[in-house]
């Protein structure tokens, strides 16, 4: 790997080939939604408690006493109060304050993702991926008044655990909400207890009735597809590590084949951090880091990176030969 951290990195050959074969799955994290105007994890947790303050079920004095707590702890408190007082937290308003997906950066980012992938997996709850955003193409001789607005087409939304199946990964125009969706807020994975239950691994017992569909789904995803992680800053890597490492088969030895990728921004003085994380993710998770430079546009630089990736490696639908191969692998397991 070059020592230089470039504003727009070179597209790895494996990623380009996966996109052309239709086996590339963008795996989208909270950083992407933050660029689109959604709150960060801490702001989201504070917002849930503020909803209870506004409803008269929690006071500002109580809020001040818990501000230092971990966001998942604060969300657990909020959900407990929601249940205790039979009230309702408006999670949609927290994630989409304007009531619409009208953020210009969000349209650019998720519009580029629409060109890069056909099927998506996300740990986000928001609705940015629930529609396919088609950005207008501007002709060379176009006038300012001749441009047309972006259009949006609804995607098929998968958010329930029993729907986490290999077949749904081969369905185009589909988004899979791994941690639940605003479609059904009661099923959102928010607290530590939720995470532990969601990723519980009882398969070592060999009992089929204890199969964890989430882990089975992730094993299939990482084995049969090429995954591009997008929107995971250093503060979200704990969640990313949890998802990846829990998905590894208990009987497996060594790392996965390095056929997955992680877009990650760095400042120019962070060479050692970049090298260390590159080694860690390759050796521990089988993931190749794709670093990009944050010096000039900070995290907004990812907009240009994704636009270039989408232009150079537009997505295709899965080839029939690939689908037959995956079916054969399932039958042989």
Question: How would you describe what is shown here?
Answer:
With 333 residues, the protein is an alpha/beta fold. Helix content is 41%, strand content 13%. The protein has 13 helices and 9 strands. The chain has a 7-stranded parallel sheet. Helix 7 runs parallel beside helix 12 and helix 9 packs across helix 10. The two termini are 36 Å apart. The model has no long low-confidence stretch (mean pLDDT 86).
Structure summarized in a few sentences:
The protein has 333 residues and is of the alpha/beta class. The protein contains 13 helices and nine strands.
Main sheet: strand order: 5-6-2-1-7-8-9
Helix-strand pattern = HEHHHHHHEEEEEHHEHEHEHH
Question: Helix amount, in percent?
Answer: 40-55%
**Which ranges are low-confidence, i.e. pLDDT below 50, for 5 or more consecutive residues?**
none
How does the overall form come out from the CA principal axes? globular
The domain tally reads: 2
Strand content: 5-15%
Mean pLDDT: 86
The largest β sheet comes out as: 7 strands, parallel
What's the gyration radius in Å?
A: 21 Å
- The count of strands amounts to 9
The number of helical segments is 13
Structural class comes to: alpha/beta
| End-to-end distance | 36 Å
């Amino acid at each position: 790997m070059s020592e230089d951290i470039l504003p727009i990195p070179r597209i790895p050959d494996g990623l380009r080939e996966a996109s052309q074969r239709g086996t590339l799955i963008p795996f989208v994290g909270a950083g992407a939604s933050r660029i689109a105007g959604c709150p960060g994890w801490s702001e989201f947790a504070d917002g849930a408690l503020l909803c209870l303050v506004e409803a008269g079920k929690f006071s500002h004095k109580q809020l001040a006493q818990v501000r230092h707590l971990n966001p998942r702890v604060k969300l657990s408190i909020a959900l407990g109060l929601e249940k205790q007082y039979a009230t309702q937290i408006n999670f949609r308003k927290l994630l989409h304050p304007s009531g619409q997906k009208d953020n210009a950066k969000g349209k650019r980012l998720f519009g580029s993702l629409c060109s890069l992938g056909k099927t998506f997996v996300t740990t986000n709850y928001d609705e940015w991926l629930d529609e396919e955003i088609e950005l207008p193409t501007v002709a060379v001789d176009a006038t300012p008044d001749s441009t047309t607005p972006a259009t949006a087409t609804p995607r098929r939304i998968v958010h329930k655990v029993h729907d986490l199946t290999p077949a749904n990964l081969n369905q185009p125009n589909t988004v899979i909400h791994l941690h639940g969706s605003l479609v059904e807020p009661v099923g959102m994975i928010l607290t530590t207890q939720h995470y532990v239950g969601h990723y519980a691994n009882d398969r070592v017992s060999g009992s089929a009735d204890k199969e964890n569909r989430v882990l089975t789904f992730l094993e299939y995803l990482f084995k049969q597809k090429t995954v591009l992680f997008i929107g995971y800053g250093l503060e979200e890597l704990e969640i990313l590590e949890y998802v990846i490492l829990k998905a590894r088969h208990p009987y497996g030895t060594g790392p996965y084949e390095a056929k997955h990728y992680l877009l990650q921004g760095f400042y120019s003085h962070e060479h050692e951090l970049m090298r260390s994380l590159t080694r860690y993710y390759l050796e521990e998770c089988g993931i190749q880091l794709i670093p990009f430079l944050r010096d000039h546009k900070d995290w907004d630089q990812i907009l240009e990176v994704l636009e270039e990736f989408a232009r150079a490696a537009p997505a295709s639908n899965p080839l029939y030969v690939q689908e037959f191969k995956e079916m054969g692998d399932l039958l042989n397991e």
